[in-house]
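pasting for the record
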Amino acid sequence: MKKVLFILSFMMGVFIMCPKGFGQIGVDVSISANIAPPALPVYVQPQCPQDGYLWTPGYWAYGDDGYYWVPGVWVSPPQPGYLWTPSYWGFVGGVYSWNRGYWGEHVGFYGGINYGYGYGGSGFGGGRWDGENFRYNTAVVNVNTTVIHNTYIDRSVVNNTTINNHTSFNGGDRGTHASPSEREQSAMRESHIAPTGNQASHEQTARQDKSQYASANHGHPATTAMNTVGGNKFGQHGHAANTASPNHTQGAPNNHIQNSNNGVHQQGRTSTASPNQYQSTPTNQHNRGDMNGGNHQQNANQQRMQSQHTQSQPQQHVQQQRAQQQPQQRIQQQPQQHAPAQQRAPEGEEHKRQ
């Protein structure tokens, strides 16, 4: 009896001394790891691609080669009226246990993790259902209001006093210390829908991409977010991931049009300069020649004649002949700056006869 009491007392002491961590009630907890997941990367959310899509934040999943980043992505919910409760890691019993997210009528507990864009650690402030239509809170989510009109602005959900250290797990010395509220516990006991097939495919694609593993990117994945499952990939700053050209980023078509019509944006890019730039240089040269009394055309004719008569006529004789004919040439050449080659032929014959 004393041994049993001693064992129970020992187990009670271990339970009290261990840092608290919370796992979901009745939700899949099937993966565990001995090391903590990396910090959450900071990234720009891409625009919502279609009315009715909901944002699911990115997270660190665990595979055979360690942790890998599953990009945040806009997805279609399984049915109207359902919201997404994000997945999270919880430190319990000396291991990091995976608590998979789910769909439900209310947002449950997700470890107090600040995933951003409406998921500030508790609940969801990125929008709400209005019947079968979802209304987006543009104070925290990226929506093109010229395309999607079911929007509103509520800045009260933005907690500017929160110190976000990008912790990606709950419990332990370095994790969040949040615990489920009564409302979150109630949501955790409701009926849920597992991640959709698109979400499962999205995670599997990230699992197969070795560049998404923390062992390769040191906690800085190249693809942090996507606009849809299998859609465009975006990096930390919102630019297209894994592409050399910035023209593939969102908004690139408008930038391309602006650059092609405005030479100012093309400085230093000789291969892509606008037609106006190519025309401006020769035009300015001709204008400068006209201002000097036709010297540009005159010098060109002189060079041609020198190359044709170098052996037969001294250069001094050519210059004298040019000096005598210069007034007449200026009068003839002012209406037309590029004289045809046939009009210069008589000059050559006259030199031969002399």
